[in-house]
Design a protein that fits this description.
Strand 17 and strand 18 form a beta hairpin. The strands form 5 sheets. The chain has a 5-stranded antiparallel β-sheet, with no helix packed on it. The protein folds into 3 domains: 66 residues; 87 residues, Immunoglobulin-like (Sandwich), CATH 2.60.40.10; 76 residues, no CATH class. It is mainly β.
Length: 246
């Protein structure tokens, strides 16, 4: 017997949509290339060597979509600087033009990798924390792939874990500013730091020499002592380390 395929649900089998004859009861394979996106309705009938035909089978709906598109390059949000030994959290986000779920491959720059996360909804963020144990400069690299295996390009974020500090005598760092917004004061054991934003006037950090930090920067000061209050537009004191966080 042979099989005929109707892809339009109109009861008409066009030339080329019949197979050759095969033994009764055997499985038939028929390859089809669809041109253009849309929905097709497949029905099948059989015909024996005497020309007798069966009725059409029940229908199978086939949805033909366009070519798969890889995800867009991911974005990385998180601290650009910090203190070695402390964990820092980063958000990785991308969208897929086809709306497919996505997975992330992350290189942390210190030899550690996160090899293809579980699949996330397109447009949602994947969050992971990482700790750099040695002071230095690193680069986070990330790419995404969709459920069909199509991969995006790489995105990067340079990271600095301060090193080679030159301290004032007594091993302290003097800090002061006259137009700041103190965002957070964290005084828990092992988590002693102050986060602040530099507003319209420079912020000064005196180690071996005075450094000037510019308006718009976000700074974290570790193990601070001095005048740091959420309600005051100025501050001064000492700390033992610092980093740019935004």
């Amino acid at each position: 017997m042979k099989y005929g395929f109707d892809f339009d649900n109109d009861g008409d089998i066009v030339f080329g949509h019949w197979t050759g004859f095969i033994p009764s009861g055997s499985t038939c394979n028929f390859n089809v290339v669809f041109y253009g996106v849309g929905t097709r309705y497949l029905t099948v009938k059989a015909e024996d060597v005497h020309g007798a035909q069966s009725g059409f089978s029940s229908g199978l709906t086939i949805v033909v979509s366009g070519a798969n598109t890889p995800p867009n390059n991911p974005t990385i949000n998180g601290y650009a600087s910090g203190k070695a030994g402390n964990p820092y959290t980063y958000d990785f986000t991308t969208t897929d033009p086809d709306g497919d779920d996505v997975s992330y491959f992350i290189k942390w720059g210190d030899g550690n990798i996160t090899s293809w996360t579980t699949f996330q909804t397109s447009g949602s963020s994947y969050t992971e924390a990482h700790t750099w144990t040695v002071k230095g400069a690193y680069t986070i690299e990330v790419k995404a792939k969709d459920i069909h295996g199509a991969e995006s390009g790489w995105s990067t974020l340079p990271i600095s874990m301060p090193k080679n500090k030159q301290y004032m005598p007594l091993g302290i760092i003097l800090v002061f500013g006259f137009d700041v917004d103190v965002k957070l004061i964290q005084l828990e054991p092992g988590e002693n730091y102050v986060d602040l934003e530099v507003l319209s006037k420079p912020f000064y950090i005196w180690e071996n020499e005075i450094q000037t930090r510019n308006p718009g920067e976000f700074i974290r000061l570790y193990n601070t002592k001095g005048l740091f209050l959420l309600s005051l537009p100025f501050c001064f004191g000492i700390c033992d380390d610092w980093g740019i966080i935004g």
